Amino acid sequence: MQAVIITTEHYHTTCWEKAFAPVLVSTTWQKNSPAQTTPIFIYHKVKDWEQAVRELSLHHNVIVLSSQLTLSELQSALSLGAKGYMDAAAGIASYQAAATAIGQGALWVPPAILEQLSKFLTTHLNKQYQAQVAHPDLTKRENEVMLLAKQGLTNKEIAGTLFISERTVKQHLTATFAKLGIKDRLQLILHT
């Protein structure tokens, strides 16, 4: 598999030659290079790397290389048109896997960044979801019990999840039903 690496004069790794044959390593880029399927890796410290990604990604599969992976840089790279983002110090297998993935139309994001992103989204979306579905007339705990009941959990499962007794779950559900003017779990599930 061939590859093009655009880097600075000060950053080079023999990993590139081992991962790709042939590999073209350059410190410059050309705006009007012909379209090709060869992946282009652009080191994030190259002068005007953002412009290079924007221009080259119009006709090429581009992966941004970074010496310090961050969610904000990932967001910038993808919004500029890059198909991937990875650690510049990654191993041969990672370079090859990234090139193969983007060649098949997938995005390439390192597992460490995916884990950070997953944690952020889970926390953020969970808080956002709970804020949207929380009923203002219910206490915080009643809202928690209501959300779990709407997901179909039994009283015992709700009790285990929230570390409370089943009797307390029943009390919260009874109070919730009264405040919302409903009679049972089915109405609770249908209640918006």
Write a compact overview of the structure shown.
Helix content is 51%, strand content 11%. The relative contact order is 0.09. It is an alpha/beta fold and 192 residues long.
Strands, helices and their partners?
Blueprint: E1 3-6, H1 15-19, E2 23-26, E3 40-43, H2 49-56, E4 62-66, H3 71-80, E5 84-87, H4 92-103, H5 111-133, H6 140-150, H7 155-162, H8 166-180, H9 185-190
Parallel strand pairs: 1-2, 1-3, 3-4, 4-5
List keywords for this structure.
192 residues; alpha/beta; Rossmann fold; Arc Repressor Mutant, subunit A; 5-stranded parallel β-sheet; elongated
What does the model show?
The chain has 192 residues and is an alpha/beta fold. The protein folds into 2 domains: 3-110, Response regulator (Rossmann fold, 3-Layer(aba) Sandwich); 134-190, Orthogonal Bundle (Arc Repressor Mutant, subunit A). 51% of the residues lie in helices and 11% in strands. It has helices at 15-19, 49-56, 71-80, 92-103, 111-133, 140-150, 155-162, 166-180, 185-190, and strands spanning 3-6, 23-26, 40-43, 62-66, 84-87. It has a 5-stranded parallel sheet with strand order 2-1-3-4-5, with helices on both faces. β4, α3 and β5 form a beta-alpha-beta unit. The protein is elongated, with a radius of gyration of 26 Å. 25% of the residues are buried. The mean pLDDT is 87.
